[in-house]
Amino acid sequence: MVASGFNPLGWVREKIVPQTREKQTREEIAEAKKQAAEEGNRSIFESQPTVVEKPVKEGRTWAMTDIKNRDKLVGAKEHKYSTANFKISHRKLNMLANQISGKPVDWAILQMQFSEKRASTRIMNMLATAKDHASRYKRMDRSKLIVCLEAEAWVTKGSRPPKRIEPRGRNHYGVRQHPNSKMTVVLRHGKTVEEKKVERREKILKRIVSAGVTREDIPLRNPAPTWRGFVAKRRVNIRLAKNSNHESGHVDVTPTTISSRNRWRTFPSTLFLALLSLTATCIAEEAAFENTAIVRTAELGGSIVHVTTTYAIKSLANGQDRYTVAFSRKERDASSFLEVKIKGQKDPLEIRERPFYANAKFTEVDVLLPKKLAVNATLNLVMETIQAHVTEPWPEYAGQKDEQAMRYTTDLFVLSSYPTLVQRTKIKALVPRIISHTTPEVGSFASDNVASKSGATITYGPFNGIPVSTSNDFLKEYQQPITIRYYHEQPVLEVTDYKRSVELSHWGSNVNTEDHIVLYNAGPKLKGHFSRVEYQQLAYFSKSSPHILHSLRMDLPPGINNVYYYDLVGNVSTSRLNEAPAVPKGQPVRKPSVIEIKPRYPLLGGWNYTFTLGWDADLAHVAGYNKSSGEYTVEVPVMTAIPGAVVNNLEVKIVLPEGATDIEVITPYPARAMWLDKHTTYLDTVGRPAIMFEYKDLTIKHAQNIYVIYRLSAKEHFRKPFAVSAVFFGFFIFTFVVRRIDLTIHKKQKTA
């Protein structure tokens, strides 16, 4: 019997176990496909016709649904995307839209990621999807999408959902309807952060305009208004004889009366000396200086106008140490403050006003330079003036709901005794709501537009090649007024009468200050009758008229106490006070006490309000004692500044302790009048010396301090106790004597 060679296990292993397959070459595969095609056994994948695909550029992918519209999508400038309607109020969703509107898309996604709002997650996912679609389907630059895409978002209400009943108590029910809305965003290409910085820097640099013909090391700019006080002080000696009685008025006051306006100095001179001085000065200064540029900036307000004039001067001769500034008579009479500085320095320069005739068209002021200038030397001078009562309401009457319009008139050219190469005038209002402005004709001085408006600023000029403008021919032919009408959104305030009384007490170690103020609203007068209903309606909707004064805020000294405020009717409780702690003597005041006064009635145009404000302070905070000389020095503020208001008349009364002698006064600026008076109060014997000052047309610049120096001997400290003791002792002696006098009437005894 012959054995069979078939092994079933080996056959199964051969069929099931994977074997190593040899790789066929391309020629073998092509030959096999050709043989299968001849036999008709081709694969179903090879039986379909082949499609030749067009090459696609690298980095561009398309969705199958957008193949037909891909030509429209290529180069798209924006991509719009929105969420579906979901249950949320459109007001709540609008707050998120305002948060991301106009911001880079990555910044918006980051804000939504860390937002606590419930809808922020949905908005974040929508922004991420919109960003991805914009870069993928519309081929918007992905590098710019990260930082440059800006989101424009808005919210719309969805469809009105069905109403449902909400059961309530006591057999009542309500209807509840949940709102729904959606958010839509539009993504666009924007500028990068660096591009925005460069654009902002170029915009700022364009505003910097050199006022000179030749570029200097430091370009000339219009300096911002800096409210600084005077540095120059005026010392006045008031001598009292120790044994004299000042009740008779025998005092030596130097000077007794200062009749010029604040900060201006007058010089008595004869006609011959005036002509001689003017002639000599004109000959000496014929070719002394040249103005390379003059830039005047007037900041319009209510009752005051702040004017800053910058002179870029060039010396034409050696040894020039005096520069002359010219003013028109109207500007000189309206100016209550004048200060000249070198640009970039804090200390003001000394000024001297030249004598002038009563009918002169202009006045001149000499500015003493700190050093003599050589030929072709340049210098920038900044002159700061404050003009009072130069604006007026126009129209003069306005209704309770009407707006407040003001009118300001000034001269077109800045007067100067020297030729000027370039001159420009800028007039700025508080808000960009200028009604109208004058457009004058200047002839050949201006090549471009004479007047241009940009926001709240009206610019006149530049004017080139201006000769000496103080000549009569120039004033008659070229000088002309310009008028600006503008809206002013703050009350126009004036203080018609201001009386301050400061009383010093050594025994009580106290300084009492009391102000009697008459406040006047100089805005347009009320047309018709006042309606309390309309006033309450405007206050409820926060739409009060700008010419109505509701409250007044004033800064008081720190460390004060016992503050009181009342008017003609009585005490007014509608006021708030924030007291600040006292400042050690010799250190600057950083935080004053603030009082907010609310008058008894709203102050409309043409109305007055009279009130009294007072407080006490520790004498040690404002006074000092010099042991070597035995002198006391007291610091007294001239007034309490009211923002934006001009003080027409001010009277300051400083009452010293009884028996004070050797009185000296240091004033920050000259007073119109100053004299010594007597003040008598309770427990006084001969009365107290009182120093009186009179001022006119003061602004916030004049809110400075008066220093009073006096002596007070030791026996004067005990004058009041001795007087009180003498009165009580005299009364005791009087009662002792009276009790021992028998005033009874005795009956005569009958004789027997």
From TrEMBL:
<comment type="subunit">
    <text>Component of the oligosaccharyltransferase (OST) complex.</text>
</comment>
<dbReference type="Pfam" id="PF04597">
    <property type="entry name" value="Ribophorin_I"/>
</dbReference>
<dbReference type="Pfam" id="PF00237">
    <property type="entry name" value="Ribosomal_L22"/>
</dbReference>
<comment type="pathway">
    <text>Protein modification; protein glycosylation.</text>
</comment>
<keyword id="KW-0256">Endoplasmic reticulum</keyword>
<dbReference type="InterPro" id="IPR036394">
    <property type="entry name" value="Ribosomal_uL22_sf"/>
</dbReference>
<comment type="similarity">
    <text>Belongs to the universal ribosomal protein uL22 family.</text>
</comment>
<dbReference type="GO" id="GO:0005840">
    <property type="term" value="C:ribosome"/>
</dbReference>
<keyword id="KW-0689">Ribosomal protein</keyword>
<dbReference type="InterPro" id="IPR001063">
    <property type="entry name" value="Ribosomal_uL22"/>
</dbReference>
<comment type="similarity">
    <text>Belongs to the OST1 family.</text>
</comment>
<comment type="function">
    <text>Subunit of the oligosaccharyl transferase (OST) complex that catalyzes the initial transfer of a defined glycan (Glc(3)Man(9)GlcNAc(2) in eukaryotes) from the lipid carrier dolichol-pyrophosphate to an asparagine residue within an Asn-X-Ser/Thr consensus motif in nascent polypeptide chains, the first step in protein N-glycosylation. N-glycosylation occurs cotranslationally and the complex associates with the Sec61 complex at the channel-forming translocon complex that mediates protein translocation across the endoplasmic reticulum (ER). All subunits are required for a maximal enzyme activity.</text>
</comment>
<protein>
    <recommendedName>
        <fullName>Dolichyl-diphosphooligosaccharide--protein glycosyltransferase subunit 1</fullName>
    </recommendedName>
</protein>
<keyword id="KW-0812">Transmembrane</keyword>
<dbReference type="GO" id="GO:0003735">
    <property type="term" value="F:structural constituent of ribosome"/>
</dbReference>
<feature type="transmembrane region" description="Helical">
    <location>
        <begin position="722"/>
        <end position="741"/>
    </location>
</feature>
<dbReference type="GO" id="GO:0006412">
    <property type="term" value="P:translation"/>
</dbReference>
<dbReference type="InterPro" id="IPR007676">
    <property type="entry name" value="Ribophorin_I"/>
</dbReference>
<dbReference type="GO" id="GO:0018279">
    <property type="term" value="P:protein N-linked glycosylation via asparagine"/>
</dbReference>
<keyword id="KW-0687">Ribonucleoprotein</keyword>
<keyword id="KW-1133">Transmembrane helix</keyword>
<dbReference type="GO" id="GO:0008250">
    <property type="term" value="C:oligosaccharyltransferase complex"/>
</dbReference>
<keyword id="KW-0732">Signal</keyword>
<dbReference type="GO" id="GO:1990904">
    <property type="term" value="C:ribonucleoprotein complex"/>
</dbReference>
<keyword id="KW-0472">Membrane</keyword>
